[in-house]
Write a structure and sequence with these properties.
Rossmann fold; alpha/beta; GMP Synthetase, Chain A, domain 3; seven-stranded mixed β-sheet; single chain; 636 residues
Length: 636
């Protein structure tokens, strides 16, 4: 049996799979896992305890190497199949292709170089590279030899990089002389050098030549990538790993400002990312799949590298940004490479929607079969723009809900198989036992309900712990509702069982004794035709205890913001009630966001309270300059 036998082809098949997975979860995942290559078969499908100290183990005793499943087995069957297309930052530069055979050889060469430097199973390797093919090669090379990779997005500051190196105890850093990002050049090596001043665990720094600008150099630890791999063998025996051995650590934002190093393991992560990729996106063997994320995020790990390659798909990676050299760059690439599945973030969709639709219509997008959304709940206006102008009112949009912690997509429609619905992530994937509970943990059993989203049973790709901080893992994800995984989001469920994510449940503000969820207020504000996006947070107030402030982005600048603000207040008052009207509404040009598109409400709360000295490191944001701009607006 191959994984293809577990592709879902109809709504009835989805329902059958979901019911079978609920009744026989271990048999369900055992059958899917057995479609992969194992050096030693697993003897136990699942061990878990979510009531005491949380622990989850999948396919214990099974031995494998994930790169054999992502590369070697495809090379045996179809060595010349296209594995990776790389589109560089500059549109005039030639794209680069790797067949599965060529990618395997490049991975083996680099893996041999790491072994020559004494890197072995369990050692941590930090990767700080731009979106170039060598980033994928480095990730897979680490997995080949059993080293634990931790990828840091190449837009992060030296302080953020240092913190991740220190926390992980990385022995080796892989970086580049610089990075191209739109019309800018980022001096990665300089940033890395600054970080390494406080990182004594790094023994070797491997440097890729990308921008060819002059850089500082230390013969003690620095080595050029091309020298590092020169003359090395294109064969590397894969390290045999236990299913529960650590594959990677990926750091995600914490509400306290301290990043959490989420730990993902080999076997379960492989099984779930491949299964979810195949079913959500419904790719055919000849398809070109493009996810516009960066490999520095979980979306890149799961649906640019491991998921597509485990399925033998062709994955496209893009170095640049959607606005360079013009706002049609995404569509130019779709046309050029005849992309079939296009997966991006609502933040990007809203930015693209602010520009003339001719940017879209000037390109032939007839190859597209599926559109996707990831990173945050997509608002209805952005969904409709995407569906109308990119999808020509015909293409399915898979609105995927998941997290760094979940490893893979948990709730989403399956492209062309289960129905999509604007702003709804829709149905849990087979094997995902989602449930709504109230704040006391009591399940909301009626079909149409609203509450706190939980998951009642393990799935293979759940993060096993926070690196060196299992107590925090327990507190954040399992203490609120013992026996259930708590992702921190609220949701509502319609009469057909579709889920709509309503926002973080910790974004509830008590104003004059009233509990006010900020997500419904934002939804109302976003209905105003002049509003692109909004964020509502609470801040301390002498009389009310807390008050609300709304930060709003407009489609175009308007001089008469006073009338607009009155209209928004009235809209909230008419829809929710006067108590929900924000005390302050501030027009801004952007919101502080992580690179994955999540609004950093912690920073917005600090700004509203004028606690400017407590913002923490903002350099890791997608748009750190916006913090200073908002600060100036609030002061004035």
């Amino acid at each position: 049996m191959s994984l293809e036998n577990y592709r879902i082809n109809s709504l009835d098949e989805y329902r059958e799979s979901q019911q079978y997975a609920i009744k026989n979860p271990e048999e369900f995942w055992k059958d899917i896992a057995n479609t992969f290559e194992w050096k030693t078969p697993f003897d136990n499908v699942l061990n878990y305890n979510w009531n005491d100290v949380p622990s989850t183990e999948w396919f214990k005793g099974g031995k494998l190497n994930i790169t054999e499943n992502c590369l070697d087995r495809h090379v045996k069957e179809n060595p010349d199949k296209l594995a990776l297309i790389w589109e560089p930052n500059e549109p005039g530069d030639k794209s680069v292709n790797y067949s599965y055979k060529e990618l395997l050889e490049a991975v083996c060469k680099f893996a041999n170089g790491l072994k020559n430097q004494g890197i072995s199973k369990g050692d941590r390797v930090c990767i700080y590279l731009p979106m170039v093919p060598e980033l994928t090669i480095a990730v897979l090379a680490c997995a080949r030899i059993g080293a634990i990779h931790t990828v840091v997005f190449a837009g992060f500051s030296s302080a953020a990089l240092a913190a991740r190196i220190q926390d992980s105890g990385s022995k080796c850093l892989i970086t580049a002389d610089g990075a191209f990002r739109g019309d800018k050049t980022v001096p990665l090596k300089d940033i890395a050098d600054d970080a390494l001043k406080s990182c004594d665990t790094i023994k070797k720094c491997i440097v890729l030549q990308r921008t060819f600008e002059s850089i500082s150099w230390s013969n003690r630890i620095d080595v050029w990538w091309h020298d590092f791999v020169d003359g090395l063998s294109t064969n590397c025996t894969p390290e045999i790993m236990d299913s529960e051995d650590v594959l990677f650590i990926l750091y995600t934002s914490g509400s306290t400002g301290k990043p959490k190093g989420m730990v993902h393991t080999c076997g379960g992560y492989m099984v779930y990312t491949a299964y979810s990729f195949m079913n959500v996106f419904q790719t055919a063997p000849e398809d070109i799949f493009w996810c516009t994320a960066d490999i520095g995020w979980i979306t890149g790990h799961s649906y640019m590298v491991y998921g597509p390659l485990a399925c033998g798909a062709t994955t496209l990676h893009f170095e640049g940004v959607p606005s360079y050299p013009k706002w049609d760059r995404f569509w130019e690439i779709c046309e050029k490479h005849k992309v079939n599945q296009f997966y991006t973030a609502p933040t990007a969709i809203r930015a693209l929607a602010k520009h003339p639709t001719t940017h879209v219509t000037n390109h032939d997008l007839s190859s597209l079969k599926t559109l996707g959304s990831v990173g945050e709940p997509i608002n209805e206006e952005a969904w409709k723009w995407y569906h109308t102008h990119v999808g020509k009112n015909k293409l399915p949009i898979v609105d995927t809900w998941w997290q760094t912690e979940t490893g893979g997509i948990l709730i989403s429609n399956l492209s062309g198989v289960t129905p999509h619905k604007p702003t709804y992530a829709t149905l849990p994937l087979p094997g995902i036992q989602a449930a709504l509970v109230n704040d006391k943990g009591v399940p909301q059993m009626e079909k149409q309900a609203e509450g706190i989203l939980t998951v009642n049973y393990p799935w293979p790709s759940i993060a096993r712990t926070i690196w060196q901080d299992h107590d925090r893992y327990q507190e954040v994800y399992f203490s609120a509702f013992p026996g259930r995984y708590f992702p921190g989001d609220g949701a509502l469920r319609d009469e057909d069982g579709n889920y709509r994510i309503t926002g973080r449940v910790d974004d509830v503000v008590i104003v004059s004794g009233h509990n006010l969820g900020t997500a419904p207020i934002e939804n109302i504000i976003n209905e105003h035709p002049e509003v692109v996006e909004s964020a509502v947070v609470g801040y301390p107030h002498d009389l009310k205890g807390n008050a609300l402030i709304a930060y709003i982005i407009l489609y175009q600048n308007t001089e008469n913001t006073e009338n607009l603000i009155k209209e928004i207040r009235q809209l909230i008052s008419d829809t929710i009630g006067p108590i929900a009207k924000p005390d302050r509404i501030v027009v801004v040009s952007g919101l502080p966001k992580t690179r994955s598109g999540k609004i950093m409400r912690r920073i917005l709360r600090k700004l509203a309270s004028y606690e400017f000295d407590q913002l923490g490191d903002v350099s890791t944001l997608l748009n750190p300059e916006i913090v200073e701009e908002i600060k100036t607006t609030l002061i004035n």
